[in-house]
Structure formats: structure tokens, C-alpha cells
Amino acid sequence: MRLSQFHLRTTKETPADAELVSHQLMLRAGMIRKLAAGLYTWSPLGLRVLRKVETVVREEMDNAGAIEMIMPTIQPRELWEETGRWEKFGGQLLKITDRKEQQFCYSPTAEEAVTDFARQELSSYKQLPVNFYQIQTKFRDEIRPRFGVMRAREFVMKDAYSFHITDEDLAREYRNMHAAYTRIFTRLGLDFRAVQADSGAIGGDASQEFHVLAESGEDSIAFSTGSDYAANVEKAQAAEPAPRGAATEAMTKVATPTQKTCEDVAALLGLPLQRTVKSVAVMTEAGFVLALVRGDHAVNEIKLGKVAGMADYRLATEAEIQAHLGSEPGFLGPIGAKQAIRVVADRDVAAMADFVVGANEAGFHLTGVNWGRDLPEPETVADIRNVIEGDKAADGGEIRLVRGIEVGHVFQLGRKYSEAMKFTVLDETGKAAAPAMGCYGIGVSRIVAAAIEQNHDANGIIWPVPMAPWTVAVCMINPKNDAAVNAAAEQLLGELQSAGIEAVLDDRGLRPGAMFADIELIGIPHRVVVSERGLAAGTFEYRARRATEAENIGRDELLARLRG
Amino acid sequence: MRLSQFHLRTTKETPADAELVSHQLMLRAGMIRKLAAGLYTWSPLGLRVLRKVETVVREEMDNAGAIEMIMPTIQPRELWEETGRWEKFGGQLLKITDRKEQQFCYSPTAEEAVTDFARQELSSYKQLPVNFYQIQTKFRDEIRPRFGVMRAREFVMKDAYSFHITDEDLAREYRNMHAAYTRIFTRLGLDFRAVQADSGAIGGDASQEFHVLAESGEDSIAFSTGSDYAANVEKAQAAEPAPRGAATEAMTKVATPTQKTCEDVAALLGLPLQRTVKSVAVMTEAGFVLALVRGDHAVNEIKLGKVAGMADYRLATEAEIQAHLGSEPGFLGPIGAKQAIRVVADRDVAAMADFVVGANEAGFHLTGVNWGRDLPEPETVADIRNVIEGDKAADGGEIRLVRGIEVGHVFQLGRKYSEAMKFTVLDETGKAAAPAMGCYGIGVSRIVAAAIEQNHDANGIIWPVPMAPWTVAVCMINPKNDAAVNAAAEQLLGELQSAGIEAVLDDRGLRPGAMFADIELIGIPHRVVVSERGLAAGTFEYRARRATEAENIGRDELLARLRG
């Protein structure tokens, strides 16, 4: 391929409305162009990268035994009514009325459509297991589409759906897909982690997310130095705390006139923040609850909501706090409430001794507080906090926090969709049985942006070779006037092709500085310069995208290096 | 690939609501499943064929220098307002309102989106010419979606758009695309014709359609035996008629009491139909017009509408006919009108002598009528008729009529879109110039159905090799119990793969009859049977899909035949 026959349009200016580096660089490299909010055209350069990702995903799905098909993007309301998701999916579902006043949606995911396909195609256990997948355009009507293709409204997704007679077989395919995803992200050259996701009612290992690690990631991920344990912060657990120490102090009321936060109280008293307890007042259907976490910890809303009796809790109002504790916020605590209240203590709080809480009196806290002596043992002890960097992990390692971009999700759906849509097959005994289902998604277009977030420098994108639009750029100096340069570049291109290395010839005739800046910006992993001077010396100038210096090397060495 | 690891579901019953053979066979072969009216899921088998077509289209577009990109399917109203097509496109445009009450449509074609892309990307003549294409899902909200994927609402289209400084360069690219399309349909193994389409205001060769020839085609196409001339019947022209002969008869009024059609009059008088003239009464803004065509010809409405003064004509009412001709329909003619009327004569009518027309008197016709003697020479002579089978063509050949399915269209758009959307580039003189545009479409999913219309028999589909899901099916007899058959089939599969021949192993363990019926139904071009008996004899049973008999042949001959 010759760049003069391609279409490339780069810009130096950083676009004003692009926050993320990947969005900025994709615009500057001319990979995408905005058509409207959350809608992007993929230019020829952008499409080359997108197709590279698609190809790796397709090959590994095929290798894993999944079978490709494709469903319509426009799907009838009736189908989505069968599962109740026409309403439940919410505002992200783009609803459409056709010329005959029939209602449809643009598929944001395809559980309904694939289950409808399956109930037409599958009637016997003999046809199971089967895993259907498609690589297709999806639409989610995001309220705030932003970050370019990272959170576009129209995007490319690989979605797979498997069908099984038994839960065990679903679990087997789930592991199979997990392994395929690991191969996909490994092949793409990405630094990633499989992370336990909060999977609602299903629990356990029935749902995992695959995250590309990047500082700009929207998700916070906890992993352990002691094993490959990793979990979304919503779900991550630290190890059980060490047993409670003995009480050594007497409970004392101290003046904290303006100190309303644990940080301020600890500073005033000269105590570590870890000695203080934060009291969070909430209301449930059964009444007032004080949730206690250590001063340096934060309540994890999902975990607290899962404690018995705490579903659908909300923060208490100031009036409710006054009525139950007789104090204004900032000085709350579990001792001296005006009415009987429920106390839910985090595991770490339950293991504390000689701690500090609010006195339920404006301007005062209590120090040296101890369970069982100054107040009853907590009725409920549970893990209700977010993990923090440095926590002990259950596997003996230490918890570390990183940020990630979710690019894949594997999920054991169970029979939710097959039962709602009355899809059964005859099992071995001749009885109608609703198959168990799994679903497995990959954000194909998002991977492109995520890869850039992880791989860039001040000069532009640095593609992992499997995603690069071309592996090598052969840059020609003065191509319009130098026949020898043309001949040498052509010959090199042929040799690279023979070696199975995808190369592009930059024959546009730009000044070297502008040409090199383009090639760096668009992230080509290897650059080779063919010049009159180099030819005279029998060398090419070679520079890897991440290298700081170029080197002059002979052809054999060049080919050896590029062959890797 | 092993069929036991694939998903195949065929049925014997012909679906009740499928009219076209291709629709019936695609359903029976399990290539597609209906999700809703005009919306089809492509099964794994169907998708294999669709991808084959896509691949050939992509390769030839790339070879022709077009550059692939991809635009959003959902496009903002504002863009379509710029060209006025938001209203003008009509009911086929699926309009959508998002959660912010912004309006969008699902792209049925992408002139607006690509022109918007181009005006962001292209600013100088140096970047031209360029031809962008995409292979993408489109939507047209058909009133009567039917015939399966032949006229689905959601479908796959390859659409390309080229940009040029000069009309000459547009014409060059148009020929380049014409040649690429010819290669595409040739490579796909289809019997097709490039046909001159009626191209409205642009005229000439600025628009051509590519049709797959099939009896079930919706379009009627005229071609000449004397050259590669072919045209849509709306546009096709016969050769100029031979010069008018001399008058030999006297004009005579004859009684035709119940004979109101040319056929009936000719039968009564014992004259060939070609001696009669049909008078069609129409009204224009300027008044009453009698259009004359030979009795065996039919008025071509598009051609008649293009005659000067005839735009927006309509058929005359009986009252208007009485007022101008003093007769009831069935006996009309150009002689003896009550008021001055305009006569538009088809070229063939103008060349007639001794002909028959209505007498403008109920129950009578005139015979032996001659121009210049019995009535004035016609004021307007033009080609206003449809060609018929057997017409002389301008190239000396004969006109033949066939039916076709439109699968491609090449079009010189000119500057309609670039001017409407204010897209200019700087030309060589530094002036802003609106580029000329071409557009080039291929109905990728429709090709699959069209190929079946052209290639099938009572047993099912007969794929041209380039579109076949697999080239060869290796059918195993008793695969579950016969290790020797398994080993031989595996070995053959390996040898075929080494020879670059795509084969599938039918290891499902069906009875031979059911297995062969499936393989014929889904249209695999070559079938090889591996059986214990064959192995004992050192032969395979081979049958080409179109052959009437199977043959037992040795391995070397088999491989030689399959290699073609």
C-alpha cells in the first residue's frame, strides 16, 4: 500500500472538546470524525484498526467453537415485551416507530433476538450446547455520549450467547469463553485483568469483567499481590480483620467544637484516623440504622444494601437524625441515642478497641470507647466498606487499586431469558426443559480507544503490533525526484511482504519532519527511512516507535529485527 | 469444519408465505429466519454465503482503488435537511426521535453523510480524486417488505462515493467502477447484464444498473443480439423504422360494431395487428393530445413524458374525449376531430402507410389511411413506445427481452450534493470549486437471493463456487461406528485443505438419503461420499451438484476434478 493512494488527514491541534487522550489522538490521527453527538464515522485509517480487532476476536471465537451469525439491528417491541425489558431497559433503549405505527428498538444487546432465533432453531438436547455470536453495530442512547468511541451511542460489539441443558455445562462454556477472552486480549497486546463483577442475584464467579488497565479508566479495580484475585471495587473484599484488642482506655467526652469530620477530630486529638469511627445515618423500611465504618474507610453502598433488612435504604434527613439521635450531623455516634436504633458495624469497626465516636451532642466526641463495655456488641457485623490500597487480601497478599476500562464481560445468565420467552427443548428424558444461557460481550470499537489510553506518548499513539494499521512504515525521502530511493523502497516493501510483514510506503513527498510526525502520531510500530544518503552508506534508518533514537542498520539486520 | 460442530437446520416443507423460490429455499436451507416483517436473522449457514459475497466485493473495490471506511447507520435530521431529502425521500426513510427529542434517520443511503465527511477531510484538489466505500447495514421502510432478503427492510449494501474536480475525471472513475462491477459479478459466477437506466435529468451513460438475469426478476430488460447494448425497458430504443412505403389503398370507412381494440379490429378485417394504430387520448397543460402507437406496441410513459410540452400529462377523461373527438373511446383516431388537436406519433406510426385508425364515430374505423393524403403529416414524431421482442436494434441486431434483478447501480451524480451541502475544495487556480460526485451501490444481501433465483433446481440451491458456503461436502457413511471411514474422510479433508479447497465434513451420522438431501438443498457444488464399500474398492463416490449421476472414482482423479 502507498500512502499517496490512501486517505490520511492528520492535525496538530488538540480538539477543544475532547477530554480523553484517546479521543484527542483518534481525532488528531484522523481515525474518526464526528457526525453527531455519540455518532462517529470511522475513516479508512480508523477502520483498518477496528478490523484488526474484529479479526482477532473472530478468530478466537471461532477457535473456541462459537458459531458466527448476525441478527437485525432493528427489533420489534413485542420481543422485548416478552422479557419486560421494553420498559426496564430504560432511556438507553432507542425506540422507533415505523410507517405502519409499529414499534421497534435499535438493539443495544440481543438476548431477546437470539432466544427467539434459538427457539425456532433448537428443539432437542442433541442440538446443545451451542454458542452463537455476532459482530454487529449496537446503539445505546447515552444521556451524555462522550470520550469519542469510548462511550459512543453507536458502537461495534461482539456478543455471544450460549445454550445448555445443565448448569454444569454452562459453567464449562463460561470457562471456555473466559479462556478465549484471555487469548483475545493477550493477542491484542493489551495489559488487562479479568475482574469479578458484582453480579446481583447470581453471585459467585458467574460474572466477570475484562478491563484494560489505564489511569484514565472509569472503573476502579482491586487486585491482590498474592494471587490473580481481582474484583471491581464494588465487590472486592479485604481479609477478615485481626481480632479485637483489649480495652486500655476509659471512655471520655472531649470537646470538638468545630470538628465534624473524622479527619478533623483525629487531627485535634493527635490520634491516627484509623482510631476514629464514622457514623452514617440511614433509613430503611424497618426504621433508623446507624452504619459504622472506620474513619479512613468509605461505605460501599452495594455491600450495605445487601445486608439483611437494608435493601432500598436511603440517607436519613436532618430531622430524622435529630429525632433518633438528638444531635446534628458531624457529632453522631452509637451511644446515647434518644430512641432504640439498629447498628450495622463494618467488620473492621467491630474489631476496634479504644475508638472515637461522636457523642450525639453538638461539639463533643467520645474517646476510648469499647464494645461490650460502653455500648452493646453490634447487632450486625458485615463487610460494608470499600477496600483501600494496602488492605490485607484474603489470599495473604496486599490489595492494590488500579483503574480500568471495561472491554469485555462474561456472564452466566441462567434461565431468565429462556423461561421468560418460553423457550424449551426436549431433554434426554423427553421432557421440555428451558436451557441455561450464558452471554459474552466484547466492546470491539471501545478496545481501539482503550488501547490508546494504555499506549501513547507525547507524540501520539503507540499501537501494539496486532492492532496497528500497518506494522512498518517505509518513509521515502524525496520520492518524487529520486529514482534510486523509489526502487529501494519498492524492493524493501516486497521483501517485507514476502516475510508476512504488513508495510505501508510513505510516498507522499512530505518534508521528513512532517512525515515522521504523522507516522508517530498514527502509531506505526516500526519506521524505516529510505534516503539517498542511507543508500550510499548501504543502510536504512530504523526506529521502533518506543525507541528514543534512530539507528542506521543494514538490510539483513533490519529484516531480522522486523521479523521479531 | 465438521457439520456436527456447526449449526444446520433444514426443513422439507415449503414455507407458506414465501412466494419466490429464493425465499423458499433460503428458509428451507435455514439460511435466514424472520424476526419481524422485512427483518431477517442470518444463520451461520446464511452468513457464510453473505460473507463470501462481501469478500469478493471488498477485494474488487480495493483493487479498483476505492478506500473502505464506515459511517454511522443513525444520521441526524439536520444533515438530511441540507439536501431537502428529509422530506423528499418519502416513507422509506425510517425516522427516529432520541431521548433528547432530536431527530435522526436510519441511513438508507449515505450521500449526505459522506459529503459531510468529505467536507471535513478534503480541502484541496490535491486530495482528489478519491473514492470512499463502506459495506454496511441499511434500512428502507418498505410498505410491503416481501420476497425475503430480496426486498428486506434491513439489508447489507456496499455503497461507494467518489469526488472529482472535473466531469471528465468523474466519467473516468465511473468507467473504472463499471469495470470493477463487471469483475465482481463475473467472479461471483452470475449471469448478469449492465443496463442503461433511465437517469432523469442527467441522461446518457451517466447511470447504469447491473442486473442478475432471472425469470422471476421484477425488471424487464432489453438487450441487443448485435452488441452489448442493454437497457431497462423504460429506456430501451429500437432502431429507426424503415422509410414509409407508398400509399396503395384508398381510405375506406368500415363497420366495426363491437371492435374497440386493435386486436379485435385486425381480426375482423383479416389484417396484421401491425397495420393498425392505437390512439391514446391525454391532456397536458396546453390541451388535448392524441398519442399514436402501432397496434402491437405500448406507450412508454417515461418517453412520452419527455416529449416537449408533454411533461405531467394525464389520460383524458371520457368527457374531454367527447368534447375534442366527438366519439366514445374504442373508435378514436386522428381524422375528423371536432376541435384542433395535437398529434404525437411514434416513429413507427409515422413510417406506416395504408393503416387503420378509429373513425371518431362509434362502430366505425378507417382503413387504408395514409399520411399527407388523408391527414396532415404528424406535427411531432418521437420514440414514445416500449421496445418489444424482435425489434431491430440500432446496432443491427435484434432486441430480446429478459427479466432481471437489480443488484448494482453506478451513477454520475454531478454536483447536486456538493452544491447543496456547500462542499468545496480549492482547485488548481486557488478558487473554491464544488467537486463532482459519483455513487456506486451493490445490494450485497440481495445478491445472495438473486443468485438462488438464477441457480436452483427441484432439490434446492446450486451455488456458484465463489458463493458456496463450502465448495465440497465430504459425506461420511456410518461415521459413528466406522473408524476407517473417519480416518479416510479426515485424510481427504486435509488433502483438500492443502489444495486450497474449502470442504466440510458431514459427520452428523444421518441416513445417506437425508444427508444427501441436505447437502443438495444447501447447494454445495461438489459431494464426495466416503463409505466402507468405497474404501474397499479404493474409490470415492463423487457427484457435482448439477450432475444427474454419481461416479465412483479414485482419489487422484477426484482431487484433479475438484481442483478444477
UniProtKB/TrEMBL annotation, chains A, B:
Superkingdom, taxonomy of origin: Bacteria
Subcellular location: Cytoplasm
Membrane-spanning parts: none
Start and end residues of each Aminoacyl-transfer RNA synthetases class-II family profile domain: 38-464
Keywords carried by this UniProt record: Aminoacyl-tRNA synthetase, ATP-binding, Cytoplasm, Ligase, Nucleotide-binding, Protein biosynthesis
Alphabetized SUPFAM superfamilies for the sequence: Class II aaRS ABD-related, Class II aaRS and biotin synthetases, YbaK/ProRS associated domain
Chemical reaction(s) catalysed: tRNA(Pro) + L-proline + ATP = L-prolyl-tRNA(Pro) + AMP + diphosphate
EC number of the protein: 6.1.1.15
Matching InterPro entries: aa-tRNA-synt_IIb (IPR002314), aa-tRNA-synth_II (IPR006195), aa-tRNA-synth_II/BPL/LPL (IPR045864), Anticodon-bd (IPR004154), Anticodon-bd_dom_sf (IPR036621), Pro-tRNA-ligase_IIa (IPR002316), Pro-tRNA-synth_IIa_bac-type (IPR004500), Pro-tRNA-Synthase_IIa_type1 (IPR023717)
Gene Ontology MF terms: ligase activity
Primary subcellular site in the record, as a coarse category: cytoplasm
Protein purpose: Catalyzes the attachment of proline to tRNA(Pro) in a two-step reaction: proline is first activated by ATP to form Pro-AMP and then transferred to the acceptor end of tRNA(Pro). As ProRS can inadvertently accommodate and process non-cognate amino acids such as alanine and cysteine, to avoid such errors it has two additional distinct editing activities against alanine. One activity is designated as 'pretransfer' editing and involves the tRNA(Pro)-independent hydrolysis of activated Ala-AMP.
Assembly information from the UniProt record: Homodimer.
Family from the record: Belongs to the class-II aminoacyl-tRNA synthetase family. ProS type 1 subfamily.
Description of its domains: Consists of three domains: the N-terminal catalytic domain, the editing domain and the C-terminal anticodon-binding domain.
Protein name, as recorded: Proline--tRNA ligase
Organism: Pseudoxanthomonas japonensis
Gene: proS
